[in-house]
Design brief:
The protein is mainly α and 203 residues long. The protein folds into two domains: 48 residues; 148 residues, Ferritin. Helices cover 81% and strands 0% of the residues. The chain is built from seven helices and no strands. Helix 2 packs antiparallel against helix 6. The longest helix is centred in the first third of the chain and has 43 residues. It is globular, with a radius of gyration of 31 Å. Pfam families: DUF305 (PF03713).
Amino acid sequence: MRDNKKPLWIALAVIAAIALVLTVAGPSIRAAFTQEEETAATSTSADAEYNGADVHFLGMMVPHHQQAIDMSDVLLDSDVDDAQVRDLAQRIKDGQERENEQMNAWADEWGIDKDMAAHSKHIANGMFPPEQMEEFTQLRGDDLRTAFLEMMHFHHAHVIKMTQGEVDGGAYEPLREMAKEMIEVQTAEMGEMEEILGYNPTK
């Protein structure tokens, strides 16, 4: 006749040992799992600070701004003596240089140099090809004044859609706020250009 008491005794001993281990090591085990969960949550939070829309916007907007700065420099270094137009060009230059400095700082912080370099050669969102920019630099007097206003109006008008895309789809709040300000400022500047020209160049 088999003795069934021994296996039962062994099972009870095993259960008791497991209970002791959980009692002693339980807090450490729970802490380890909690730490892993917190690390995962922190990583997810960090990843969510900026997204692909933010990276794309920085890559496209920095060279777009630089072209507007270059156009403003041409006007400011010229013989155009219209104080209102010169003031507008100076404000465009100052504002977009300041924004580019901040956007480049974010790009460095995020380590997206390759993305920035890839976008730096794009001619898009109202930008002008090199040959047209070369023609622009050769203008003088009233021809330059008129070309600056018409081309800058076009430049502003065609980038606003992309800027709205950052407002709607970006994840990095400081960049989204900057994009909102860009839309407000450039819309107002377009209004100034229309007033100076006496018409809307896009109509």
